């Protein structure tokens, strides 16, 4: 099936707007890529507010990060990190990087998200690990995340932000929304006496429920051990 490129470019702009509306980044923060059937990628432009993109601003690059279309917009400075995800995972078709406040606070305070406290976060994210710090836009950052990609679709990037991936753009975006919601609830619960956590039996039941009722492509740390 061929890709509807105009629709995908519009969808990237819509997600940039939703991320900006939700405060998932300041100024020019964040980037999105989508892998197309021909092996090229759509990519947000660097150094622009992702809340105010128009489809003509979306770049098209190859698997080395080089532009394949004439454009006055330059691709994101974080394309290496995105390309690393596609190299590690042939099931992934979209990657979202953002700096959502609660997820970023966890990433900056050195706190991975490990508490099992809500059905949705347990079923759809499991745990969210904290990957080591790497200098933005360099191979350091790709090297830092690579070991985690086999088991996780959502990562906290130490002292930086968050990254999610999915079999399509909506699924990568939903994981970013779910990740920040999970981080927010964990943070607020910690101010309010601490969350009640599920016991291992309840976690097992939720994972079984996910497998039965909500099977979805992607990786889950309690299933892909
Ligand atoms: P770009 O504008 O180059 O995509 O960079 C934004 C960002 O969030 C870097 O981590």
From TrEMBL:
InterPro entries: Aldolase_class_II_sugar_metab (IPR050197), Aldolase_II/adducin_N (IPR001303), Aldolase_II/adducin_N_sf (IPR036409). Its EC number is 4.1.2.17. One of its GO terms (cellular component) is cytosol. It is an enzyme of class 4 (lyase). GO terms for molecular function: L-fuculose-phosphate aldolase activity; metal ion binding. Keywords: Lyase, Metal-binding. GO terms for biological process: pentose catabolic process. Residues 10-187 form the Class II aldolase/adducin N-terminal domain. It holds the Pfam family Aldolase_II. This is L-fuculose-phosphate aldolase. It comes from Aureimonas pseudogalii. The lineage of its organism: Bacteria, Pseudomonadati, Pseudomonadota, Alphaproteobacteria, Hyphomicrobiales.
């Amino acid at each position: 099936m061929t890709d509807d490129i105009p629709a995908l470019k519009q969808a990237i702009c819509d997600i940039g707007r939703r991320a900006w509306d939700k405060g998932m980044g300041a100024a020019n923060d964040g980037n999105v890529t989508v892998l197309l059937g021909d092996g090229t990628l759509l990519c947000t432009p660097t150094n622009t507010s992702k809340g105010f993109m128009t489809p003509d601003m979306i770049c098209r690059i190859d698997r080395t990060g080089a532009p394949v279309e004439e454009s006055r917009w330059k691709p994101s400075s974080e394309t290496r990190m995105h390309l690393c995800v596609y190299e590690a995972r042939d099931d992934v078709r979209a990657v979202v990087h953002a700096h959502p406040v609660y997820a970023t606070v966890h990433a900056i305070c050195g706190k991975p998200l490990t508490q099992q406290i809500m059905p949705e976060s347990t079923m759809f994210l499991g745990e969210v690990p904290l990957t080591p710090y790497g200098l933005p836009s360099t191979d350091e950052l790709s090297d830092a995340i690579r070991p985690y990609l086999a088991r996780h679709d959502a990562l906290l990037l130490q002292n930086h932000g968050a990254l999610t991936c999915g079999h399509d753009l909506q699924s990568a975006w939903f994981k970013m929304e779910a990740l920040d919601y999970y981080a927010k609830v964990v943070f607020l619960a910690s101010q309010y006496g601490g969350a009640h956590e599920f016991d291992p039996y309840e976690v097992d039941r939720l994972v079984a429920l996910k497998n039965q009722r909500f099977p979805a492509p992607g990786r889950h740390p309690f299933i892909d051990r």
